[in-house]
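Title: Prediction job returns without error message
Component: structure pipeline
Severity: low
Priority: P3
Assignee: unassigned

Description:
Job completed but the reporter wants confirmation the result is attached to the right record. Sequence as submitted:
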Amino acid sequence: MVRLTRLNGKAIVLNALLIESIEETPDTMVTLVTGKKIMVLEPVTEVMDTVHRFLQTVGLVGGTVKSLNSEGS
């Protein structure tokens, strides 16, 4: 779950696994897989960073990425 802020200043907690897309319109619009759209105050890059940190926390994204050269290929 990620905590974001609606345009009216109220906090909202979203299930990050349900996010389909994030776009600037110029406000940030988060679209869920259900089709629901939520406008938030945070810029796209901040939402992406927050979601990425959440995914790392639950083990869905690795902490580092190895280059092909470091694997001996």
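Comment from assignee: result matches the submitted record. The radius of gyration is 15 Å.
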